[in-house]
Amino acid sequence: MSSAQQLLLTAIRCDIDNLTHLATTADIVGDISRFIHMLQRERGASTIYLVSQGQRFKTRRDTYRQHSQQAETLMRQRLEALSEEARPRPLRAYYDELPPFGMR
């Protein structure tokens, strides 16, 4: 494999790693967004529950609390799964894979 081919292959690997990292980041952002949405629903139901002195929205509030807890669990699991492998490699690591200049 020529140096040019090796360089092209390394550039492609770098692009793939960056796209994988971007996809993982997008998934985490989606999880955080869903979690915030669930918290807002729970907060709204809790406000009505408290203002009504427990007369309204008790069941809905409990349901929303469960949804919030589930969204939090999913978000935390995704964040914990984000490891060194999911982070992009430093550019220097790709250069180290290349053969010395002028060598095949």
TrEMBL record:
Per the UniProt record, one Pfam family is NIT
Q: Which residues form the Nitrate/nitrite sensing protein domain?
A: 35-85
This protein is called what? Nitrate/nitrite sensing protein domain-containing protein
InterPro entries referenced in this protein's UniProt entry, alphabetically = Nitrate/nitrite_sensing
